Amino acid sequence: MNLESVVLRPVEESDLEVLSRFDAEPELAGSSWYGFRDAGRQRRRFHSDGWLGDEDGKLMVTADAEVAGFVAWASAGHGAGRYRSIGIALLPGWRGQGIGTQAQRLLCQYLFAHTAVQRIEAGTQPENVAEQRALQKVGFTQEGVLRSAEFRDGAWRDVIVYGLLRSDRLADQP
Ligand SMILES: CC(C)(COP(=O)(O)OP(=O)(O)OC[C@H]1O[C@@H](n2cnc3c(N)ncnc32)[C@H](O)[C@@H]1OP(=O)(O)O)[C@@H](O)C(=O)NCCC(=O)NCCS
Question: pTM surpassing 0.90?
Answer without folding.
Answer: yes
